[in-house]
Amino acid sequence: MNERVGMVCLGCAKNRVDGEMMLYKLREAGYELVADVANSEVAIVNTCGFIEDAKQESIDEILELAELKKEGKIKAIIVTGCLAERYQTEVMKELYEVDAVIGIGANQNIAEVVKEVLDGKKQELFPDKEDLTLCGGRVRTTPFYYAYLKIAEGCDNKCTYCAIPMIRGKFRSRPMEDILQEARELSEKGVKELILIAQDTSYYGEDIYGKPYLSELLKELCKIDSVKYLRVLYCYPERMTDELIDTFANEEKVLKYIDIPLQHCNGNILKRMNRHGNRETLTALINKLRERVPDITVRTTFMTGFPGETEEEFAELSEFVNEMRFERMGCFAYSMEEDTPAAKMKDQLDEETKKHRQEILIEQQQIIMAENAQKMIGKTIKVLCEGFDRLAECFFGRSAADAPEVDGKVFIIAEDKKPKIGDIVEVEISDTLDCDLVGIMH
To answer: CATH number of the domain at 146-374, please?
Structure first.
């Protein structure tokens, strides 16, 4: 059996891990994996269905592949991931070129589904979403020096704007020993940076151990000799306990980088989002983090244009962003998702207002990050070399302050010795390029 299978993986890193596990199943079944779906006989689109823009990207990708199928370049199209789980039988009705649609609970059946579509049989499989396996082999699609480590699936937070609990089900933690075993295997294969992910990493262990267990997990991971760096994404502010903050402060292998999606700072808006806190409590938390973990990089995400957001409430958010000077920030315009409580709320804002407010926050943040970058000049930092930029004619990489795909770069001027990809090198910052850093390797 040499049928070629390719996969386009869209959306978040959690979806990427699911895709890697499916690729492993396919390779084990004897299929040939190809990097470019245009060269495959069966093309899999592992979709995102989180917000409208992501859904549209998934649909556009399927339509592009449909053209290749019409031209006879590929034989079949399979749709997996969040869009498939959320819309199920609607996908094939709307996109007749698709040969199979499977929900996340059927990921482990991917090899059988490929066989069926190659035999000309259409497939729709939607078992219980909790059938999605959390452990197993992966064909990694990230560079050799970093890997995502998914520690849980699903979400119990029930934010009013979010469809993830409907798509992904209840929060399910992986047993700690499974995670530790995978971490050992990954680090022994040369992975230097393990990036912990879940819908809410700070909730890890609550369902298994009766209390949040992220701090204990991080401490155990730090004991693995071959693990070099640990980065944590998607922590919720109300679960940033003193114990967890101390772990960030005291464990050398845990990067001084914390991703806390705050979404807003106005207490009224946060309450209607079914989230906790207000400007005062969030300010206190960020100040505590910076005090207890010197040089920490705080990444956050905000949402503009939530139903009923007034000019005054947005102005408060804008002030908050300027005041807190977050090292890293993302911003989304609110997307009305059907079947969520927020979609039924009155006072929905028009797209223009939502997008305009988003642009204001992003522009503010660009100024803050450029000013923060200037303050780095003269400092020496460790940088993980990721490649050579032919346009800039120099190497580039990431510091502890930069997560892959979402944050910036450090451009490395190597005068004598050239770094190898995957090397961790010392770089003295000499200049900036917008929000990125430029430095000389020592």
So the answer is: 3.80.30.20
